[in-house]
Amino acid sequence: MNMTIEQDDGLVATVDREAEAGRMDFYRRARGKNLAPLWRVLHGLVTEQPVPRCAPVLWRYSELRPYLMESCDLISTQEAERRVMVLENPGLPGQSRVTQSLYGGLQVLLPGETAPPHRHAASALRFIIEGTDAYTAVAGEKTMMEPGDFIITPSMAWHDHGNDGAAPVVWLDGLDMHIVNTLAASFRENYPAPTHPIERPEGAAMAEVGSNLAPLGQTYASQTSPIFNYPYRRTREAISAMASFRKPDPCHGFKMRYLNPLTGGWAIPTISTTMQLLPHGFETRGYRSTDSTVFVVVEGEGVSKIGELEFHWGPKDIFVVPSWMPVQHLASQDAFLFGYSDRVVQEKLDLFREEAL
Ligand code: 1HN
After folding, report:
1. Range of the domain at 28
2. φ, ψ at 236 (rounded to 5°)
3. Based on the structure, what is the number of domains in the chain?
4. Is 159 close to ligand 1, i.e. is its CB under 6 Å away?
């Protein structure tokens, strides 16, 4: 017997539960013809407000890191393909989701290790957490990773990684594969060699499109930004300079979005990315929006009130603010927060909503 009616208040309001008994035989016969009554599920399908399945959650880096290091003892990057511990939202266990629509995981490379080349329809972001001498090669161009750098792997671009340094390197992977899979549009392919050939010098993309200039006559078909490494040094400098002459936004402090310089749109067509500075002592006004957001603390300390919960955070910690849940941040030191969400998808579909509280 279907228990949905007893469990969902929305259904109780629209369906006469005593009358339901007399409909059971009809439901059973309809099910045999791949038919089902809408009125038993309507209000669960179309809710009055967002009902996020993901929960607010904080991962403290000091608690995560030992697990990352232990994973290095247990599996090689060759066997794992990608040695990643997935950030599993406790509201969506076993689904490899950090929010309802997005994936998040922490990847670790030890000195001398590489991760083999492959490509996929899903777009990826890397946000560097720890370590300095690793690289990622994307579509034939290498870039070195520094903490705080935001790096893009566009849809179907070949990519591999390696750590040339003397210490472990850790980064956050954010991917849109759940959006891709909802649309049943996934492809993936392994490259038939241990590395993909390097075809362009390091810094080529930045030289071509990183100075508000672009090579005349070159056309760019992709919706993804041709800049694939947004170095933290430059991002931090821009935001700090802006903070010296502007007033902070009441809800966000000094918050910048990562742009595709060719279009003015978001850097990745399916994942919005931002960096914000919350000056020490600054308390944001309450805010909510329909995009569930993953925050990574780059610098500073503070506390975020998310619904009824309070998360105290520091450098390298990661936390999630679910859709439509009120959030307020209070920074006790100048704090830089990276964020990623599905806002750009919602904007394209005319679904994004936000409000100051
Ligand atoms: C992937 O390709 C990477 O390239 C990391 O480093 C994490 C998670 C799911 C699917 C593909 C990478 C991934 C991934």
Report:
1. 1-48
2. -65, -40
3. 2
4. yes
